[in-house]
Design goal:
Number of domains: 2
Number of strands: 13
Structural class: alpha+beta
Number of helices: 10
Helix content: 25-40%
Distance between the termini: 29 Å
CATH class of the largest domain: Mainly Alpha
Strand order of the largest sheet: 6-5-4-7-13
CATH superfamily of the largest domain: Intergrase catalytic core
CATH architecture of the largest domain: Orthogonal Bundle
Strand content: 15-25%
CATH topology of the largest domain: hpI Integrase, Chain A
Length: 355
């Protein structure tokens, strides 16, 4: 069971946006949604029976579609194969009321999962993708929320839909765009009246989806996550963040930087580590080390020159970490592609950037 820290109520108001979320409204933030997705994925593959795994896989796809499109459960259950355009990476939702249908962008990785499902199922354009009882879907959503350490009501499809709308707004996507994407007839959050064309909607949504995908796939030596703890000292503060991949990264910054950036628990930041600051140890070499951040990894590639060597590693969540070391150190480690290793870096080496 995962333990997910509660969101700091102070962060439910976005300083850079014109909206706030009432304290009694149930929402999940990006890290909590990522934790819930991991729980779903483990459950979807955790059965020796192929038919059970296929059934769970369909439930997982329904979750992913609601999580990334913000559509209603009945809209996803009404989807036909022809409603999915994998070339444009969009899904048309709206059920039988085609005049109210809307086109919603989806991330590349979800498009590939849908491609695999469509190929395996041999669906025609008019074939329904999910012939599943809505009550059964809701029960499974509640079960996975509890398995993730959340109250069961946080698995409600409406909660996921609401969470997606807040996530998009916090990502600085204009409210009229979010309204259009989620099919809201009227805004439930105060905003100015703006006229946004369909082209503007899809351009803004695609830019956000692509930026969000880069966070999940994680550029080299960069983490995206939520601050879970701040320990303030006389001169410096220790900041701990929980990444989308479920990793904990510790940084030490000055109190002046903490105040200037207005960092608080629950706020989202990126953490960057320069390659020369990343140390690498063999599979048995990390215990006797004072590094604040010690993360298990697998070696992808080792490129050794006359003076320097570049070691590329992949963490458990898929984040790629690059380390620059001396050629002599690389030879001494004797690491090869596929070897298990440890990535080590001190808290003072982690640079935080506020989202």
């Amino acid at each position: 069971m995962h333990t997910i820290p509660d969101e700091d109520p102070a962060t439910r108001h976005s300083p850079g946006a014109s909206f706030s979320v009432p304290p009694n409204v149930k929402i999940l933030d990006s890290v909590q949604l990522a934790e819930l997705e991991r729980t779903f994925r483990v459950w979807a593959t955790d059965s020796p029976r192929r038919d059970v795994r296929e059934s769970r896989r369909r439930i997982l796809l329904i979750f992913l579609l609601i999580r990334h499109t913000g559509a209603k459960l009945n809209e996803i259950l009404d989807l036909k194969a022809g409603d999915i355009d994998l070339g444009k990476r969009v899904v048309t939702v709206g059920g039988e009321e085609r005049e109210r249908a809307r086109v919603v962008e989806i991330p590349d990785d979800l498009a590939e999962e849908l491609r695999a499902a469509l190929t395996a199922g041999g669906h025609g354009p008019e074939d329904a993708l999910f012939r599943i009882d809505p009550a059964h879907v809701r029960r499974k959503f509640y079960e996975q929320a509890e398995a993730c350490g959340l109250p069961r009501e946080f698995g409600n499809p409406s909660t996921l839909r609401r969470s997606r709308s807040v996530e998009l707004l916090r990502g600085n996507l204009p409210l009229p765009v979010v309204q259009r994407l989620l099919g809201h007839s009227t805004p439930n959050l105060t905003a100015a009246h703006l006229d946004v064309s369909e082209e503007d909607v899809h351009h803004a949504a695609r830019r956000y989806i692509d930026r969000e995908s880069r966070r999940r796939t994680s550029a080299r030596n960069i983490f995206f996550g939520k601050i879970t703890e701040i320990l303030t000292g006389d001169i410096q503060s220790e900041v701990t963040l929980l990444t989308l991949g479920g990793l904990h990264v510790v940084s030490v910054i000055t109190n002046a930087s903490l105040r200037r950036m207005r960092l608080k628990v629950g706020m989202f930041v990126t953490a960057e580590i320069k390659a020369p600051w990343v140390l690498v140890a063999g599979s048995e070499g990390a215990d006797q080390n004072s590094a604040d951040n010690r993360l298990p990894a697998m070696v992808i590639d080792v490129s050794t020159g006359r003076i320097n060597a570049e070691i590329l590693l992949r963490l458990a969540d898929g984040t790629e970490i690059c380390s620059i070391t001396t050629a002599a150190s690389s030879r001494r480690l004797k690491l090869r592609s596929g070897d298990q290793a440890w990535v080590l870096f001190g808290a003072y080496c982690v640079v935080l950037n506020r989202e």
